[in-house]
Input
Amino acid sequence: ERMRDIDTVVVDKTGTLTLGHPALTDFVAEGIPENEALALVAGVEQLSEHPIGLAIVEGAKARGLTPQPAGAFDAVNGLGVQADIDGKRVLVGSRNFLAQRGVETQRWEARAEAWRAEAKTVVFFAVDGIAAGIAAVADPIKESTRDAIAALKRSGVRIVMLTGDSKRTADAVARQLGIDEALAEVLPEDKAGHVKRLQATGRKVAMAGDGINDAPALAQADVGIAMGTGTDVAMESAGVTLVKGDLRGIARAAVLSRATMRNIRQNLAFAFGYNALGIPVAAGVLYPVFGLLLSPVFAGAAMALSSVSVVTNALRLNRVRL
Ligand code: ADP
Ligand code: MG
Output
C-alpha cells in the first residue's frame, strides 16, 4: 500500500542491477612479472567471498595460474582484502583502501580512470607498501534491468544507485542505464544513512537490495524490497520480496499498488454516491414536492447493487497489465 507514494527507488549496483558475477577483464603489474603478480593477488582473493575476489581467482585460473597459498587474511567490508604471502604483505582493494594504509597509488590513476569510464570496477594492489598494479573486473548488466528502469521512470519514479565502487564507474553504469543519480564510494554501514538523507528531503524511498550488507538500509526505507536471489536477512528486513530477483518486479509492484489505490477510491466514490442519493430519498426529501418515497424493496435492491458494483470494480484489478 505504501508503494503507491514511492517517488524514489534506490538500488544497489551489485546483485540488483548486474548479474552479480563479474569477470576479470584487465590486469597490469610493474616491478613483478604479470603472471607472478596475478598469482599473488589471486592468492589473497581465494580467501575472499566477494564477487570481485571470485572474478580474480577465476581469471587467474583461466590463465593457467595457481593462486599462491596465503595467511593472515583480513577483509575490510566495502574496501578490500589483505594477506601475507611468502613473507610479503599483499593488499588488494579500492584506492581508498590502499591510501588508508599509506600506499601511494597516483601512478596508476590515469589508467584506472580509463577503465572506470568503460563501467569496469578497478582494484589496486600493493606488495610490501608499493602499489604494483591494477586489475579490472566487469559485471554484465542484467538484460531485464534496462526495461525495468525505463518502466519505473515512465511512472515518474526517480532512480538512485548506491555503490561502494568509484564515482567514475558508477557514473558510467548510470549513463548506460538511464539512472538519474549515482552515489559512489558508499561504505556498507553508510547505506542506511543515504536512504535517511533522501527521506529528509521529503522523498518516499523504496530500496532494493540483496541484504548482503544493505539490510539496515532496507529496514530504513519506506518500502524495503528484498531481491529474491538475496539473503534471508534481506527478506526479514524488507516489506516486499521479489522472488525472482528481477528489477522489473518493482515496476510491476508500483503499477499494481497504484491501480489498487485508484480502485479503492473509485469504490468509495460509488458507495458514497449511492448513499448520498439513496438515503435522502429513503428519508423522504422528495415526498413533499413529488410525493415520492423509496420503498424498502428498492432500497434493499440498491444496497445490494452497490455491493455488486464495488466488487465488480475491484475484480477489474485482475486485468491490470503488469
Ligand atoms: P558494492 O556492494 O557497491 O559493489 P562493496 O561495498 O562490496 O561494493 O565494495 C566496494 C569496493 O571495495 C569495491 O569496488 C572494491 O574496490 C573494494 N573491495 C571490496 N571487496 C574487495 C575484494 N575482495 N577485493 C578487492 N577489492 C574489494
Ligand atoms: Mg555489495
About this structure: The longest strand covers residues 130-138.
